[in-house]
């Protein structure tokens, strides 16, 4: 529980919606 | 000419010539054809019309199509460069090209800037970043107090917004991601190296005589 040490973009980039790798999970 | 060869392609509207797409991207003809197998499966998941709509992209990304999702919308907008409301095969290949491990870093930086510049003003504004942070918290069911969110934004803008005008311009973004290369990790898909192995069935649907280019 230490997200404050991360910057906003590091946090945002953990979104599943931004992970295009899931397109390949067919 | 192999026994699977067929010259009749108009199965999907807007399906661009794989040879042409390969000439415009880092993909080989075989890889473009393998990507077409992936495209076909996504574009037929809700309506089998040879185009990917928002619902289909969301289904592929999240395995659900019910909830409106800001990030899925952003990715959709990046694919849908001509703002047609649907993604055709050419859009699909050209965008994935930027995610190729061998694509120029500069292209990845520019595309990531576009991803965060939601309203297309040429700046990443604090409000946009806040909106995305809140969307992330909703998605992950993580709870953070508003003042914690503001602290994260303060810290981020102190680091990224060099001229302290409250928004991040392209050169500040360039500088910031160069100092924080992990931010570009989402812009590379290692899967794209092995696309022909992942979708070997492209061989049976190939339309070019020589697929091993």
Automatic annotation (TrEMBL), chain B:
Keywords: Calcium, Membrane, Metal-binding, Repeat. Residues 67-102, 104-139, 148-183 form the EF-hand domain. GO terms for cellular component: membrane. PROSITE patterns: EF_HAND_1 (PS00018), EF_HAND_2 (PS50222). It comes from the Eukaryota. Homodimer. Interacts with CIPK. Gene3D superfamilies: EF-hand (1.10.238.10). GO terms for biological process: calcium-mediated signaling. The keyword Cell membrane does not apply. It is found in: Membrane. Belongs to the calcineurin regulatory subunit family. It comes from Salvia splendens. Pfam families: EF-hand_7, EF-hand_8. Transmembrane segments: none annotated. Acts as a calcium sensor. CBL proteins interact with CIPK serine-threonine protein kinases. Binding of a CBL protein to the regulatory NAF domain of a CIPK protein lead to the activation of the kinase in a calcium-dependent manner. This is Calcineurin B-like protein. SUPFAM superfamilies: EF-hand. One of its GO terms (molecular function) is kinase binding.
């Amino acid at each position: 529980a230490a997200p404050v040490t991360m910057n906003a973009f590091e946090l945002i980039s953990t979104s599943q919606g931004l992970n295009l790798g899931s397109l390949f999970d067919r | 000419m192999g026994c699977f060869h067929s010259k009749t392609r108009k199965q999907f509207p807007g399906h661009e010539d794989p040879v042409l797409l390969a000439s415009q991207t880092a993909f080989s003809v075989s890889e473009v054809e393998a990507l077409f197998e992936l495209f076909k499966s996504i574009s037929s998941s809700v309506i089998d019309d040879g185009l990917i709509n928002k619902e289909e992209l969301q289904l592929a990304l999240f395995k659900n199509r019910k909830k409106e999702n800001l990030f899925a919308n952003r990715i959709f907008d990046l694919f849908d460069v001509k703002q047609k409301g649907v993604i055709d095969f050419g859009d699909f290949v050209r965008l994935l090209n930027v995610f190729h491990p061998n694509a120029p870093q500069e292209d990845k930086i520019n595309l990531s800037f576009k991803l965060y510049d939601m309203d297309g003003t040429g700046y990443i504004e604090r409000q946009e970043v806040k909106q995305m942070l809140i969307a992330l918290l909703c998605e992950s069911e993580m709870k953070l107090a508003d003042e914690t969110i503001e602290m994260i934004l303060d810290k981020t803008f102190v680091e990224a917004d060099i001229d302290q005008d409250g928004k991040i311009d392209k050169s500040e973004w360039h500088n910031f991601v160069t100092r924080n290369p992990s931010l570009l990790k989402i812009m590379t898909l290692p899967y794209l190296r092995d696309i022909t192995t992942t979708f070997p069935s492209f061989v049976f649907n190939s339309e070019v005589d020589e697929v091993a280019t």
